[in-house]
Amino acid sequence: MSLLLKALRTIAYAVLPAEVLLATCLVGGVRIPMAVLAVAEAAMALLLAAEGFAYLRLRRKGLTRREAVSELVPVSVLRLVGHELRLMYSLWLWVSRRRHGVGPGDRSFGHARDQAALMYGFTLVCVVETVAVSYLLRHWPAVHAVLLVLDVYTVLFMLGIQAASVTRPHVLSAKTLRLRQAGHVDLLIPLERIADVRHELRFTHEKRDGELDLQVASQTSVTLELSEPVVHVGLLGGQRPVRTVRVHADDARAFAKTLREVTNGECAGKAPVTPA
After folding, report:
1. Helix, coil or strand: residue 72
2. Where are the alpha helices (DSSP H) in 107-140?
3. What is the C-alpha separation between 158 and 181, in angstroms, rounded?
Protein backbone atom coordinates (compact mmCIF):
# COMPACT_ATOMS: atom_id res chain seq x y z
CA MET A 1 0.00 0.00 0.00
CA SER A 2 2.86 2.37 0.76
CA LEU A 3 4.23 1.95 -2.78
CA LEU A 4 0.80 2.78 -4.20
CA LEU A 5 0.58 5.93 -2.08
CA LYS A 6 4.04 7.07 -3.18
CA ALA A 7 3.15 6.44 -6.82
CA LEU A 8 -0.12 8.39 -6.48
CA ARG A 9 1.67 11.37 -4.93
CA THR A 10 4.28 11.36 -7.70
CA ILE A 11 1.60 11.27 -10.39
CA ALA A 12 -0.41 13.99 -8.63
CA TYR A 13 2.63 16.30 -8.53
CA ALA A 14 2.83 15.98 -12.34
CA VAL A 15 -0.87 15.92 -13.31
CA LEU A 16 -2.29 18.69 -11.10
CA PRO A 17 0.13 21.47 -12.22
CA ALA A 18 -0.43 20.44 -15.83
CA GLU A 19 -4.20 20.65 -15.32
CA VAL A 20 -3.90 24.14 -13.83
CA LEU A 21 -1.70 25.23 -16.74
CA LEU A 22 -4.18 23.93 -19.31
CA ALA A 23 -7.09 25.64 -17.54
CA THR A 24 -5.19 28.93 -17.51
CA CYS A 25 -4.42 28.63 -21.21
CA LEU A 26 -8.06 27.89 -22.04
CA VAL A 27 -9.32 30.87 -20.04
CA GLY A 28 -6.71 33.07 -21.71
CA GLY A 29 -7.94 32.07 -25.16
CA VAL A 30 -5.02 29.77 -26.12
CA ARG A 31 -6.06 26.98 -28.47
CA ILE A 32 -5.21 23.53 -27.14
CA PRO A 33 -5.32 20.48 -29.48
CA MET A 34 -8.20 18.16 -28.65
CA ALA A 35 -5.82 15.21 -28.31
CA VAL A 36 -3.88 17.02 -25.56
CA LEU A 37 -7.09 17.88 -23.73
CA ALA A 38 -8.35 14.32 -23.98
CA VAL A 39 -5.12 12.89 -22.58
CA ALA A 40 -5.08 15.44 -19.75
CA GLU A 41 -8.68 14.76 -18.76
CA ALA A 42 -8.17 10.99 -18.96
CA ALA A 43 -5.10 11.26 -16.71
CA MET A 44 -7.06 13.38 -14.24
CA ALA A 45 -9.96 10.92 -14.20
CA LEU A 46 -7.62 7.97 -13.65
CA LEU A 47 -5.85 9.83 -10.84
CA LEU A 48 -9.14 10.60 -9.07
CA ALA A 49 -10.29 7.00 -9.47
CA ALA A 50 -7.01 5.69 -8.04
CA GLU A 51 -7.18 8.17 -5.15
CA GLY A 52 -10.74 7.03 -4.40
CA PHE A 53 -9.69 3.37 -4.48
CA ALA A 54 -6.75 4.05 -2.15
CA TYR A 55 -9.00 6.05 0.21
CA LEU A 56 -11.46 3.15 0.49
CA ARG A 57 -8.61 0.71 1.13
CA LEU A 58 -7.29 2.89 3.94
CA ARG A 59 -10.75 3.22 5.49
CA ARG A 60 -11.17 -0.56 5.44
CA LYS A 61 -7.88 -0.85 7.30
CA GLY A 62 -9.42 1.10 10.17
CA LEU A 63 -8.14 4.62 9.53
CA THR A 64 -10.39 7.58 10.24
CA ARG A 65 -11.38 9.97 7.45
CA ARG A 66 -8.78 12.51 8.56
CA GLU A 67 -6.04 9.85 8.78
CA ALA A 68 -6.91 8.45 5.35
CA VAL A 69 -6.80 11.89 3.73
CA SER A 70 -3.48 12.60 5.49
CA GLU A 71 -2.03 9.46 3.96
CA LEU A 72 -3.10 10.49 0.47
CA VAL A 73 -2.33 14.21 0.57
CA PRO A 74 1.03 15.70 1.71
CA VAL A 75 0.89 17.33 5.14
CA SER A 76 2.15 20.65 3.75
CA VAL A 77 -0.73 20.78 1.24
CA LEU A 78 -3.31 19.94 3.89
CA ARG A 79 -1.97 22.61 6.22
CA LEU A 80 -1.95 25.27 3.49
CA VAL A 81 -5.54 24.45 2.53
CA GLY A 82 -6.52 24.44 6.20
CA HIS A 83 -4.90 27.84 6.66
CA GLU A 84 -6.84 29.34 3.75
CA LEU A 85 -10.11 27.90 5.10
CA ARG A 86 -9.40 29.31 8.56
CA LEU A 87 -8.88 32.78 7.11
CA MET A 88 -12.15 32.65 5.20
CA TYR A 89 -14.00 31.30 8.25
CA SER A 90 -12.49 34.08 10.34
CA LEU A 91 -14.15 36.62 8.05
CA TRP A 92 -17.51 35.10 8.96
CA LEU A 93 -16.64 35.17 12.67
CA TRP A 94 -15.54 38.78 12.34
CA VAL A 95 -18.76 39.88 10.65
CA SER A 96 -20.88 37.99 13.18
CA ARG A 97 -18.85 39.41 16.11
CA ARG A 98 -17.86 35.99 17.41
CA ARG A 99 -14.55 34.64 18.66
CA HIS A 100 -12.91 31.28 18.14
CA GLY A 101 -11.79 29.03 20.99
CA VAL A 102 -12.93 31.20 23.91
CA GLY A 103 -15.01 29.06 26.26
CA PRO A 104 -17.02 29.90 29.36
CA GLY A 105 -14.71 31.04 32.16
CA ASP A 106 -11.76 31.60 29.80
CA ARG A 107 -9.97 34.93 29.67
CA SER A 108 -9.00 36.33 26.30
CA PHE A 109 -6.35 38.87 25.34
CA GLY A 110 -6.47 40.60 21.98
CA HIS A 111 -3.33 41.16 19.90
CA ALA A 112 -4.53 42.65 16.60
CA ARG A 113 -4.84 46.35 17.41
CA ASP A 114 -1.28 47.48 16.56
CA GLN A 115 -1.27 45.87 13.12
CA ALA A 116 -4.74 47.09 12.06
CA ALA A 117 -3.57 50.27 10.31
CA LEU A 118 -0.90 48.36 8.37
CA MET A 119 -3.29 45.60 7.29
CA TYR A 120 -6.00 48.05 6.22
CA GLY A 121 -3.37 50.03 4.31
CA PHE A 122 -2.24 46.94 2.41
CA THR A 123 -5.88 46.04 1.72
CA LEU A 124 -6.56 49.51 0.32
CA VAL A 125 -3.54 49.19 -1.99
CA CYS A 126 -4.90 45.85 -3.23
CA VAL A 127 -8.32 47.40 -3.90
CA VAL A 128 -6.76 50.28 -5.86
CA GLU A 129 -4.68 47.78 -7.84
CA THR A 130 -7.79 45.73 -8.62
CA VAL A 131 -9.59 48.78 -10.01
CA ALA A 132 -6.54 49.90 -12.01
CA VAL A 133 -5.94 46.45 -13.53
CA SER A 134 -9.64 46.13 -14.41
CA TYR A 135 -9.47 49.43 -16.29
CA LEU A 136 -6.24 48.54 -18.13
CA LEU A 137 -7.49 45.10 -19.18
CA ARG A 138 -11.05 46.09 -20.11
CA HIS A 139 -10.40 45.16 -23.75
CA TRP A 140 -9.11 41.65 -22.86
CA PRO A 141 -12.08 40.08 -21.06
CA ALA A 142 -10.53 36.63 -20.60
CA VAL A 143 -7.34 37.92 -18.98
CA HIS A 144 -9.37 40.45 -17.02
CA ALA A 145 -11.59 37.69 -15.59
CA VAL A 146 -8.61 35.63 -14.39
CA LEU A 147 -6.84 38.58 -12.78
CA LEU A 148 -10.07 39.87 -11.25
CA VAL A 149 -10.57 36.58 -9.42
CA LEU A 150 -6.97 36.66 -8.18
CA ASP A 151 -7.22 40.30 -7.09
CA VAL A 152 -10.50 39.81 -5.24
CA TYR A 153 -9.10 36.77 -3.47
CA THR A 154 -6.01 38.79 -2.50
CA VAL A 155 -8.25 41.42 -0.90
CA LEU A 156 -10.16 38.71 0.98
CA PHE A 157 -6.86 37.14 2.03
CA MET A 158 -5.58 40.40 3.52
CA LEU A 159 -8.85 40.99 5.35
CA GLY A 160 -8.82 37.36 6.46
CA ILE A 161 -5.45 37.78 8.17
CA GLN A 162 -6.76 40.71 10.19
CA ALA A 163 -10.04 38.91 10.87
CA ALA A 164 -8.16 35.84 12.14
CA SER A 165 -6.05 38.04 14.42
CA VAL A 166 -9.16 39.70 15.85
CA THR A 167 -11.29 36.57 16.28
CA ARG A 168 -8.48 34.32 17.57
CA PRO A 169 -7.11 36.06 20.67
CA HIS A 170 -4.73 34.57 23.21
CA VAL A 171 -6.81 32.46 25.59
CA LEU A 172 -6.07 31.70 29.24
CA SER A 173 -8.00 28.75 30.66
CA ALA A 174 -7.76 26.92 33.97
CA LYS A 175 -4.82 24.73 32.91
CA THR A 176 -3.41 26.06 29.64
CA LEU A 177 -2.37 29.21 27.84
CA ARG A 178 -3.26 29.25 24.16
CA LEU A 179 -1.12 31.63 22.10
CA ARG A 180 -2.17 32.41 18.55
CA GLN A 181 -1.09 34.46 15.58
CA ALA A 182 -3.57 35.04 12.74
CA GLY A 183 -4.59 31.63 11.37
CA HIS A 184 -1.23 29.86 11.24
CA VAL A 185 0.01 29.67 14.86
CA ASP A 186 -1.85 27.90 17.65
CA LEU A 187 0.44 27.04 20.56
CA LEU A 188 -0.79 25.37 23.76
CA ILE A 189 1.34 25.85 26.88
CA PRO A 190 0.46 24.06 30.14
CA LEU A 191 0.47 26.64 32.93
CA GLU A 192 2.76 24.51 35.11
CA ARG A 193 5.50 24.86 32.50
CA ILE A 194 5.58 28.67 32.70
CA ALA A 195 8.61 29.51 34.87
CA ASP A 196 8.84 33.24 34.26
CA VAL A 197 6.68 36.00 32.75
CA ARG A 198 7.87 39.52 32.08
CA HIS A 199 6.70 42.57 30.22
CA GLU A 200 9.46 43.19 27.69
CA LEU A 201 8.94 45.41 24.67
CA ARG A 202 11.08 44.35 21.68
CA PHE A 203 11.25 45.59 18.11
CA THR A 204 14.20 43.47 16.93
CA HIS A 205 14.27 39.69 16.95
CA GLU A 206 16.96 37.20 15.97
CA LYS A 207 15.98 33.68 15.03
CA ARG A 208 17.51 31.27 17.56
CA ASP A 209 17.03 27.63 18.45
CA GLY A 210 14.52 27.10 21.21
CA GLU A 211 12.94 30.55 20.81
CA LEU A 212 9.67 31.56 19.17
CA ASP A 213 8.75 35.16 18.34
CA LEU A 214 5.07 35.78 17.57
CA GLN A 215 5.44 39.32 16.30
CA VAL A 216 2.61 41.75 15.66
CA ALA A 217 3.65 44.81 13.66
CA SER A 218 7.29 43.71 14.18
CA GLN A 219 7.02 43.84 17.97
CA THR A 220 6.60 41.58 20.99
CA SER A 221 5.75 42.79 24.46
CA VAL A 222 5.56 39.74 26.76
CA THR A 223 8.27 37.10 27.21
CA LEU A 224 7.59 33.64 28.61
CA GLU A 225 10.34 31.35 29.90
CA LEU A 226 9.31 27.70 30.18
CA SER A 227 10.61 25.05 32.55
CA GLU A 228 10.05 22.39 29.86
CA PRO A 229 9.88 22.89 26.09
CA VAL A 230 6.66 22.77 24.10
CA VAL A 231 6.42 21.79 20.44
CA HIS A 232 5.68 24.52 17.92
CA VAL A 233 4.20 23.35 14.61
CA GLY A 234 4.95 25.63 11.65
CA LEU A 235 2.68 26.55 8.77
CA LEU A 236 3.87 23.62 6.62
CA GLY A 237 3.94 21.11 9.47
CA GLY A 238 7.56 21.44 10.61
CA GLN A 239 8.02 20.91 14.35
CA ARG A 240 10.57 22.31 16.79
CA PRO A 241 10.77 22.55 20.59
CA VAL A 242 10.77 26.02 22.17
CA ARG A 243 11.49 27.16 25.73
CA THR A 244 11.32 30.91 25.22
CA VAL A 245 8.20 32.43 23.68
CA ARG A 246 7.74 36.12 22.94
CA VAL A 247 4.26 37.36 22.11
CA HIS A 248 2.34 40.61 21.82
CA ALA A 249 -0.91 41.69 23.44
CA ASP A 250 -2.92 44.88 23.14
CA ASP A 251 -2.70 45.32 26.92
CA ALA A 252 0.65 43.67 27.54
CA ARG A 253 1.02 44.74 31.18
CA ALA A 254 -2.38 43.31 32.13
CA PHE A 255 -1.59 40.12 30.19
CA ALA A 256 1.74 39.63 31.99
CA LYS A 257 0.23 40.46 35.39
CA THR A 258 -2.61 37.98 34.92
CA LEU A 259 -0.20 35.23 33.87
CA ARG A 260 1.98 35.81 36.93
CA GLU A 261 -1.07 35.63 39.17
CA VAL A 262 -2.45 32.38 37.75
CA THR A 263 0.85 30.52 37.45
CA ASN A 264 1.57 31.12 41.15
CA GLY A 265 5.11 29.83 40.68
CA GLU A 266 8.51 31.40 40.91
CA CYS A 267 7.37 34.07 38.45
CA ALA A 268 4.48 35.18 40.65
CA GLY A 269 6.27 37.86 42.62
CA LYS A 270 8.42 39.40 39.92
CA ALA A 271 7.72 42.89 38.71
CA PRO A 272 7.33 43.70 35.02
CA VAL A 273 10.52 44.53 33.19
CA THR A 274 10.47 47.25 30.57
CA PRO A 275 13.79 47.91 28.82
CA ALA A 276 14.78 51.51 28.30
Report:
1. helix
2. 116-136
3. 14
